[in-house]
Amino acid sequence: MPIPYSRLPIGKCSDCNEQKRLQFRGPQGRICSNCKKKRRPPKRKVCAKCGFVGIPALKTDQGPWCGNCYSKLVNLPARPLEECDNCGEMCVLHYADPPLCRGCYLELVYEPKKKKCSGCKEERIIVRRSEVTGLPICSRCRQREYEGPVRTCELCDELRPVASYLDRASTRPICKGCYMRRRRQRARK
User: Fold this and answer.
1) Is residue 65 in a domain?
2) At residue 34, what are phi and psi to the nearest 5 degrees?
3) Are residues 126 and 157 in the same domain?
4) Which of 62, 95, 165, 178 could bond 105 through an S-S bridge, CB–CB 3.0 to 4.6 Å?
5) pTM score of the predicted model
6) Helix, strand, coil percentages for the chain (3-state, nearest 5)
7) What is the pLDDT of residues 76-107, one digit of tens each?
């Protein structure tokens, strides 16, 4: 269980030398959250020592080093490779009971929290904020948002992606739902 922010140790940050709550570990010691934001390492790099592609644990003159090479440098025991109970792959285990690799853990154990999507109003997994409204949306609504430019539909007055226009010479947009309704109505006539 994570430690509440108010209970984090207060000390001198090894990067900025200011007295702050030390929330993270850096290569030279504990660091504050401001310094962690400043030094965010690139997502994946090739280790200059062993060639492993991963998240760098240390930046050196030769290039970034992976966690295992860094552990050997400071004499920390490297995390051992063990067999995953589900897929049988030899890897660093993510979940200990039963022993699972990260992929199997995400597939079998992890259950993301569902919240109410501001787009479809359903309980779904939120993937990001809408670029139009700034409110949380699910993957389905995110896909809808990228279908076309978002404008106010002339027929339903909702902010939706443009599917068509009222007539060929018009600049009055209509959404996909209204477009499909109009097509069905025309087909019945």
Assistant:
1) no
2) -65, -45
3) no
4) 95
5) 0.28
6) 25, 30, 50
7) 556 678 888 888 888 777 766 778 887 787 77
